Give the backbone structure.
Amino acid sequence: MSTVIKLKGHNQKKGKGKPVAAASATVGEQDNALRRALEKIVALNRDSTHHAFELGACFAEIKALVPERGFGRCLKVFTDYTVRSAWNYISVHERLGDYRDALLKHAILPTVMFELAKGEPAQIEAVIAQMESGERIKVKDVREMLGTKPKRKSDAAILNAGGPAGLRKVAEWKIDRDAVQFGQLMSAVLDQVEKALEPLARGRAVRKGALQDKIVHDCRHAHDLVNSIAAPLQPQMIKSDNWRPARLPEGTVWREVQMLLHRMGGVESWPARDDFVPWLQNEVVPLLRFVVHGEPLPGEVEDVDEEATVEQVERRAA
């Protein structure tokens, strides 16, 4: 082991003559003890790597010897391993056998190998190359390099969680799904509006009826979704009436989006012929691009967004 943690000088006792030499000897002994302990950890890790391959081979053999549906029952009766754990070790045995020497050399822990076994050969080799360069590889590093993420909790697990914290998780679960649908609808509407405006470049008219046929229903659904995602419910004048989504705060862009989608969802609310194209150019397209791409409205003083992507920054600067 080339790297050893050095003890701080201020931990050494001050003194004169021989006591200093004695303190130096003590520090040297501590360094040696520390080195031996760290080397032992690496050796034990290497044992764990070897153990994982051996376990995988044993589980693979058992799986081949028992009926298909008897594997789990056999594990339950004779071992302390779950089927999932056994399959993890089998994957190490079956998918990482060609890389066994390299993995043993670097004393890779089983949890890291479980993730690594999910990769394709080229990906596995790339991870091992990182190890050879001296990098310590952890589970999260393997996931990043393979482009995988840990599985989310199942819907049932989320929907069965109680209390205020459970309710918040359910709300996040719902918003995640609604936001995806909303984004898909808005992207489709923006695409249709921009295509409808293309004839202007050739000196031709924009066909209002054709555009309405393509996007009115999507706008209605998008209006329902933005209300569901962002608008709080408010009581009605009559106590027995169902609560309805409130209008978002005046002066905000999302309030404008909410009102625009409401208008676009009804053909009778669209502007007349003379005002139709300017409305699309000056109101509809900017608001849709705000929603889909995060672009600020023309003339808007934009707040600094520390989480803006490079793509958004470049688009805004264009």
